[in-house]
Inverse folding.
DNA sequence: CTTTGCAATGAACGGGTGTTCAGATAATTT
DNA sequence: AAATTATCTGAACACCCGTTCATTGCAAAG
């Protein structure tokens, strides 16, 4: 090999991903053309195919990248002892992490149906791994008698749904700061599981 | 006028809407072509334009129709006295109504970004009207001292998000029936507002 | 039974789609 | 300095897009 692999790619590939994230989040996967992405990067269409196999792979890379990062960050975040404290830590982590990456989150939740079946399955596996973090906390809380909650799985889906919804309406310039919302959600979610 | 307006339209127009709902929900507005819709109805593309001005209007009609029906049904549903009972009635109504129309719900929540700004504003107004139904209940409960909830608006968005999420994962053949889920959600939501 | 007029056809319009590829470019290793 | 090779260009491919419109068909009104 005569050149370090990706000497240029190291600059262009991330820019393609960044442009795709912005455009997919703004207009939707199906409504964005490869030419639009290329235009945003300042390159011709054909050049994109040096960095991604096709449009579908680009979408998959964005989603898998986002979910992998999410899981890694979730692992890094410390989870305190005790079901109530662990639940609160999860909620705060989720809200903060997702608020910082609205575009990736939007794509990961809205473009699932534009994945091929195999790619959908791969993404769902990652998503399920994240949900399982919360489900474990709920299960432990139920087992310890700390939570009054009939079903850990449904509780997980309900809480994730509640949290995910924030991204659809939260605006930094709104009436309440993110810290305010974090506090309100912590209270509501703690109460929702009967703790 | 030589003929009752819409003697044919009375058959074709609803079929177009039904096909569009199915296809938009399955593949997304941008990914569905007018030719696909026409094919599903068993008609040529041009015929669609006898019943809708353009693709964008078709989307708007579906969304406005869904939200108008939702508001009408919500008004018809009786709301019992007392904040706790009213909240439970709202939750049960929402879950049942939405479970019966998964495709319309999916479109109304996922295709907002494919609306032109004016059309988006119209749909948001209707959606806000529905959210206000819940917000009033929460406000009344807080005022009466029946709920322990810091902010009625955030509580509304949190609960709506929680409820709306059901449609993304509920399957009739799943582990739990809709009635089971209804019961679990009623408990969680009642607890979440501190009642 | 003729008139009326809505609805459906089928072809066309201009333009956009994802993807490929031969050839030019430029940067790194030898 | 020369050779190498990842990257980019620019054009092309075959096909699909939303929308329009002259023409045709047909069901109801008079």
């Amino acid at each position: 090999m005569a050149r370090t692999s990706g000497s240029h790619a190291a600059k262009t590939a991330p820019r393609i991903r960044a442009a795709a994230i912005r455009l997919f989040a703004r207009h939707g996967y199906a409504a964005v053309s490869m030419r639009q992405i290329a235009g945003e990067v300042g390159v011709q269409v054909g050049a994109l195919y040096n960095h991604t196999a096709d449009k579908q792979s680009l979408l998959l890379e964005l989603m898998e990248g986002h979910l992998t990062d999410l899981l890694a960050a979730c692992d890094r975040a410390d989870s305190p002892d005790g079901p109530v404290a662990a639940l609160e830590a999860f909620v705060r982590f989720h809200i903060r992490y997702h608020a910082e990456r609205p575009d990736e989150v939007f794509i990961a939740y809205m473009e699932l149906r534009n994945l091929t079946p195999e790619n959908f399955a791969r993404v769902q596996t990652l998503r399920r791994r994240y949900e399982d973090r919360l489900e474990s906390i709920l299960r432990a809380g139920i087992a310890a008698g700390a939570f009054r909650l009939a079903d850990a799985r449904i509780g997980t889906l309900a809480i994730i749904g509640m949290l995910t919804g924030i991204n659809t309406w939260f605006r930094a310039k709104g009436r309440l700061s993110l810290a305010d919302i974090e506090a309100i959600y912590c209270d509501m979610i703690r109460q929702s599981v009967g703790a």
